[in-house]
Task: inverse folding
């Protein structure tokens, strides 16, 4: 993820998840339909958000077919990696240990989660 990549707001992230999950270029009407259970938006509201996502460099808009087709420029994994790194830096002084300690201390994760993490880390080491 580029350092200049901006953060996504909650609604923008929901839009991006629709675009990422589609795997193909999508229309604004498709996105609106996919979001209808979570967002009671008019098309104009969605179009404003899509324009912002284009400006932020997350999606591109192809107008060559006579319809606006939106495609992601930034992959979901690329965004998640950058957002996770930023989250760790901002909240936990760039320490995964600090994050796990805080979550465990506040009972947000259980011993079974720790065991699952331990098995995952052992598997990574074996590869």
Result:
């Amino acid at each position: 993820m580029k350092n200049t990549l901006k953060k996504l707001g909650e609604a923008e992230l929901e839009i991006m998840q629709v675009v990422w999950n589609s795997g193909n270029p999508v229309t604004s009407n498709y996105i609106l339909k996919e979001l209808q259970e979570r967002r009671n938006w008019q098309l104009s509201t969605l179009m404003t958000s899509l324009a912002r996502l284009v400006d932020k460099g997350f999606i591109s808009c192809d107008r060559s077919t006579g319809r606006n087709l939106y495609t992601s420029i930034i992959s979901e994994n690329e965004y998640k990696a950058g957002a996770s790194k930023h989250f760790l830096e901002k909240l936990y002084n760039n320490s995964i240990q600090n994050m796990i300690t805080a979550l465990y201390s506040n009972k947000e994760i259980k011993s079974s989660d720790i065991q699952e993490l331990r098995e995952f880390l052992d598997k990574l080491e074996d590869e």
